[in-house]
Amino acid sequence: MIYAFDGYELDLDQFELRRDGDRVAVEPQVFDVLAHLVEHRTRVVPKVELLESVWKTTFVTESALTSRIKAARQAVDDDGRSQRLIRTVHGRGYRFVAPVEVFVTPASGPPAASGPTDQRVAVSQEIRFCQSADGVQVAYACSGEGPPLVKAANWLSHLDYDWESPVWRHWLQELSGGHRLVRYDERGCGLSDWDVDHVSMVTKVADLEAVVDACGLERFALLGISGGGPASVSYAARHPERVSKLVLYGAFAQGRMVRARTVEEKREAELMVDLAELGWGRDDPAFRHVFALQFMPEGTREQWAAFDELQRRTATPANAARIMEATADLDVAALAPRVQAPTLVIHSRNDRRAPLGEGRRLATLIPDSRLVVLDSSNHILLRDEPAWERFVDELSGFLGD
Prior knowledge:
CATH topology of the largest domain: Rossmann fold
Mean pLDDT: 89
Number of helices: 13
Number of strands: 17
CATH class of the largest domain: Alpha Beta
Number of domains: 2
CATH superfamily of the largest domain: Alpha/Beta hydrolase fold, catalytic domain
CATH architecture of the largest domain: 3-Layer(aba) Sandwich
Largest sheet: 8 strands, mixed
Low-confidence stretches: 106-122
Distance between the termini: 36 Å
Strand content: 15-25%
Structural class: alpha/beta
């Protein structure tokens, strides 16, 4: 991902800041501060968020952040008086205010040696914000052209970075082809408000309602992936007049804590939350690799590393744990029979995050539904596996009917 502003390029792939093509020397923490502000430029970034993102579990005083902000301003020819690019919002934090153009490298690989930006392509998406029922700011994006397809928020997303990440890039390219794809970051995640203290089924549905209303959509196809599945089921049951078709992939009727039947299963669900809260922000990726192996057991080391980076960028340890705990408590088993829209349920046969039994349960509970089982162990399908081609074929056929 490359962010261009005021004659500068912030290259997250090469970890470089460049001005007119020439590298600008900055310390790693200064680069991280600048990158976080640019990535979250559509809102004020609280000081505590910057401290957690850059220094993670290391304790530092606020003066350390102040000095890095000063250095970041100097690196981009800004200062505390003019604040042309980095603005101080007293009592709250900082915000990057300069116009930014976003570029991604193509899926075929990194830029050519002839220049760091030779193969860049602009991301054709609009990022906007709306307010949920409780006042939380939710970031949403629209890309592609065609009939509307709304993707409910799921854990681990970042409206900007997803286009670069090999975890989600092929999903976005496919879903935007032939559709106007509307997606949003879950509260506490990505570009949506990180300063949240409550996540539940109520807030998940409220955020989905806010995005759909902000887009002015009357009727649309709805896609629920993983933890976005229960919110999609709930919305479809409550608003049958607005959902034309429902697609559920890797979804579940009951979260891990709800469907746990033994003490060991409950402890395992609690352990996942503890791992997120204790190990998420550490420099050592060992804790985050636990999740990578569950989400993409058939992935390569490079794909696991990409998933690790996705985790690091999308949420703080506290928010990751909060979202995971709320997701484990979701239960739409009673609502699923009220879904009226034709529904396609797709599930990987050996999914380690959401067992196939949950896909079968949804297909049994939702009246007009069909189950497709993919030969894969991945919770997030990879671009180069046969199951991905089958998923695309099934999705296209269903939405095109």
